[in-house]
Amino acid sequence: MWAAFTSVPPGINQPRSAWPGAYGNLPSVAFVIPYLCHNMHDCDIATGHQWLQANLSGNLDWVCTHNSLLVVTFDESDSQRGSNHIITLFDGAALRPGRFDEPIDQYRLPRTIEEIYHLPALGKAASTTPITDVWASSTH
Length: 140
Prior knowledge:
Number of strands: 3
Largest sheet: 3 strands, mixed
Structural class: alpha+beta
Oligomer: single chain
Strand order of the largest sheet: 1-2-3
Strand content: 5-15%
Helix content: 10-25%
Distance between the termini: 22 Å
Shape: globular
């Protein structure tokens, strides 16, 4: 998503192997976009689940006790099986647990982050609303 913006430094888009050993070294909002096998597009659910457990379970525990947000989004779905729904997972201390079926796209997600940090909305994100129903309080 952000890799397509020319104003974002190239160092922002890093492979999973560059993930810091200490979670406190992550930015307050971190994104993970698993590869096709790990997001269960090209491999089975068990393979994806194993990858998520091995690579993100410690980070999930950490974000829930710190003022941090982890966003895991799959890069695509199998549009041959029907509509092209892409799963996006949020975890962090300020979130309400649950499943939320509101649509999220490449504009609503950045708009939500802009809202969290009280930043001006840029580009097409300015004409959409932020995601609001996932927060435990109305502070976002």
